[in-house]
């Protein structure tokens, strides 16, 4: 039994609430109560108390879209147009490098960065999902691991059918791991056939799994679909039975009125990745209109090759500011709703809304403490606004996953996490050299 | 005599250069050489050497637009439309609070935040500029202090004429302070009369001072000017003789083709403040078009009441990403040119391009060291891209102003700076309470 007693708690449920001088009572991996701190001390006089003066406590952040192994390609393709980024850098590098070791090491780097930034759960899409799951478990995090579906072969497998088979086997193996869940992850409308999409739809219904898919990321994707299929990608997915409350539309940058109405009618969720959309010049997603249409919007960082950070707080701040700046409405996406998007909206999208995403008795104790007492966040009028607009993720001093301390005094706390990260950091120079040597001479990166 | 030997140096001049295993030699306040580290050790065998493995060294950042005292109002008006933000929060609070103490304390908080984030010089606009200058000197920074010009009275003075007189007196008093410079700071086209603008233009010419002015921040400002003056604000300023290479157009969010051509022809500079423009829903400045037209663009944070951070690195990252995302060109505003905007472009705008803004022999030793060896910025292919797209300002471990260490191991190093900050932090709760009590009951802020 333990108590966490911060200056403020923003529980997310009930909405837009800030509790002063309250405590969270935790037993094992669960939250058992949220109550005035003095009452908590009286109720559990023997409980260990973590005092956090000047801190705000919020639910663990959910990164609703990333490709964790791509941390090893961070900075390997900056300032290039999307086509050249993919054709000259990302695809040739991935073709040469993808292996269980690459995925494992990249995933460990990503988990370290995310945990220190308050992310306790992430939704991933990549090859060798078993290595992503293993890294998340070793590092003490939760993951929703994607069962990748894409037509082309890779060292991981020959194509969609084999990827699905391997993914489902992995899901069976990890059935008893409470920190690992699965999604079906068809890559994108332009890389997945109608047949494979139909198979995904039927598996999703049979196994009650969320489906995530990159969609309407660029205008080219939409015009190609119109040329090839006679319809926009979202309409094609709807016709194939993919859309619904378990569908996560990743990016969704270019949406016309019919697209917005379709998503809203189907109850689908958007995974908004503003930094990636800006960096690759995909555009600015109409999040104010999505939200006005009642479409749930969660936030993702995308992979580190197109961001280049896995900092969900920075991502959320940009999401909120961009919604205001691009809609002309300074009240769009206010701070409390931004915190909701970073937590409960992401958890619900992954089918975990009953377990994660708010500081509510009965839920898992996934928690983040942010120190707002530094000069750069003083004075504090509204702690949640100060978190979203003012604070940096480096002001996160402590993080808990399932009641266990995973970040303490701004450092990874788990012994296994520290040792896994140390091994990977030591190997990063070797990955760097292999990546540089893999590129043709004219495209070589510097930085060694 | 001392040497700084980081893993990489990005000197900004020559452009787009990264030096490996070089050292910067510093004598007193000036850079005397930039040369291979081994050669430097041979040339000055007795010099104190600061080794910085895994670090990138860059010039000190120049925050080209801020209102430092407004840190005390950080978070006092979030998620409100611009009009209500001004009329219900900022103006009533300022009317009640502005005093030398308010300005001094807010400025100290701001200087601490900026120094820790690598800002070595800032351009300010506020009342009681003597307090801003004093805070900058005490904290060990440089400042270009604005001589505020605005028609309405305040506790600081009765109006434009008195503000100018007081500002010029202060400039005379501080003539021998090498770390303080002055600009003329007419507030905005809608708060300054033609007569005052003419006076500013004549003083600027006579005293060779830069002029900074908020301009084309909102569409309302432009339509009001068309109604009142029959011309757009920039054209009015041009007709009054304000534009030229010493003119800093703050914000410049809404520019048509004629505005762009006018700024380019006059050689004026833009101070781009993307977070403030987004947060207040002013819009997205067309920086890709400005840059294509040859208009120099520096970067500012604006005040903490509309940002809410004074983090120039975060601001620059958003500037670069927003240029790409809003222009549809992923190669817009690449990393090296972003670093240039944060340093040399800002220095030149303030008339300090011969002294600051690049790591060049003869210039002042204003330097920033960033640790790129953390998990979240590994591996490093292109250090400048890693700085702009990947790193957080909390990875800044050391900062020098005029050859003096002002940040050491991520903490303020100056004894006076530490003690000034300590006093102000202790008073912040009092400011918080005064601010909360100043607002009418219905508008009260929480957070206490």
Structure commentary:
The structure is a homodimer of 448-residue chains. Chain A is 41% helix and 22% strand. By secondary structure, chain A is α/β, with parallel strands linked by helices. Chain A folds into two domains: 2-59 and 367-412, Urease, subunit C, domain 1 (Roll), CATH 2.30.40.10; 61-349, Metal-dependent hydrolases (TIM Barrel), CATH 3.20.20. In chain A, the strands form three sheets. In chain A, strands 1, 2, 3, 4, 5, 14, 15, 16 and 17 form a nine-stranded mixed β-sheet that branches. In chain A, strands 6-7-8-9 form a four-stranded parallel β-sheet. The mean pLDDT of chain A is 96. At the A-B interface, helix 3, helix 10, helix 12, helix 14 and helix 15 of A face helix 3, helix 10, helix 12, helix 15 and helix 16 of B.
Percent of residues in helices of chain A: 40-55%
| Separate helix tally of chain A | 15
Shape of chain A: globular
What CATH calls the topology of the largest domain in chain A is TIM Barrel
Determine and state the CATH class of the largest domain in chain A: Alpha Beta
Q: Whole-number average pLDDT of chain A? A: 96
Secondary structure: number of strands of chain A: 17
Describe the biggest sheet of chain A? 9 strands, mixed
Question: Quick one: CATH superfamily of the largest domain in chain A?
Answer: Metal-dependent hydrolases
Portion of residues in beta strands of chain A equals 15-25%
Distance between the termini of chain A: 49 Å
| Low-pLDDT segments, ≥5 res of chain A | none
């Amino acid at each position: 039994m333990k108590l966490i007693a911060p200056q403020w708690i923003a529980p997310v449920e009930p909405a837009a609430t800030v509790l002063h001088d309250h405590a969270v009572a935790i037993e094992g991996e669960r939250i058992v109560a949220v109550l005035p701190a003095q009452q908590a001390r009286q109720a559990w006089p023997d409980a260990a108390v973590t005092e956090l003066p000047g801190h705000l406590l919020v639910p663990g952040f959910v990164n609703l879209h990333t490709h964790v192994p791509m941390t090893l390609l961070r900075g390997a393709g900056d300032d290039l147009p999307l086509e050249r980024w993919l054709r000259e850098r990302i695809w040739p590098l991935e073709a040469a490098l993808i292996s269980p070791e690459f995925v494992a090491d990249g995933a460990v780097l990503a988990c370290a960065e995310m945990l220190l930034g308050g992310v306790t759960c992430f939704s991933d899409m990549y090859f060798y999902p078993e290595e992503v799951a293993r890294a998340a478990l070793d590092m003490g995090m939760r993951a929703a691991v994607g069962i990748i579906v894409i037509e082309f072969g890779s060292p991981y497998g020959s194509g969609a059918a084999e990827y699905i088979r391997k993914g489902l086997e992995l899901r069976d193996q990890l059935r008893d791991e409470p920190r690992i869940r699965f999604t079906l992850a068809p890559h994108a409308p332009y890389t997945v056939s109608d047949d494979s999409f139909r198979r995904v739809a039927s598996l999703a219904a049979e196994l009650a799994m969320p489906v995530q898919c990159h969609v309407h990321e660029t205008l080219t994707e939409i015009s190609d679909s119109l040329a090839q299929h006679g319809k926009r990608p979202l309409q094609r997915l709807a016709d194939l039975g993919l859309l619904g409350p378990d569908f996560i539309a990743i990016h969704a940058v270019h949406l016309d009125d019919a697209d917005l109405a379709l998503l809203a009618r189907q109850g689908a969720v958007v995974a908004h990745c503003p930094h990636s959309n800006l960096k690759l010049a995909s555009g600015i997603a109409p999040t104010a209109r999505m939200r006005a249409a009642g479409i749930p919007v969660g936030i993702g960082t995308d992979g580190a090759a197109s961001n280049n950070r896995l900092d969900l707080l920075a991502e959320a701040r940009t999401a909120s500011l961009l919604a205001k700046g691009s809609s002309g409405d300074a009240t769009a996406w206010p701070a409390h709703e931004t915190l909701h998007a970073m937590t409960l909206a992401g958890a619900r999208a992954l089918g975990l809304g009953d377990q994660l995403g708010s500081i509510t008795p009965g839920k898992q104790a996934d928690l983040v403490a942010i120190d707002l007492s530094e000069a750069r966040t003083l004075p504090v009028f509204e702690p949640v606004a100060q978190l979203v607009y003012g604070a940096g993720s480096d002001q996160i001093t402590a993080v808990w996953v399932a009641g266990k301390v995973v970040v303490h005094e701004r450092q990874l706390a788990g012994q296994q996490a520290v040792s896994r990260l140390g091994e990977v950091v030591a190997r990063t120079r070797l990955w760097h050299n292999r990546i540089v040597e893999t590129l043709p001479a004219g495209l070589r990166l510097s930085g060694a």
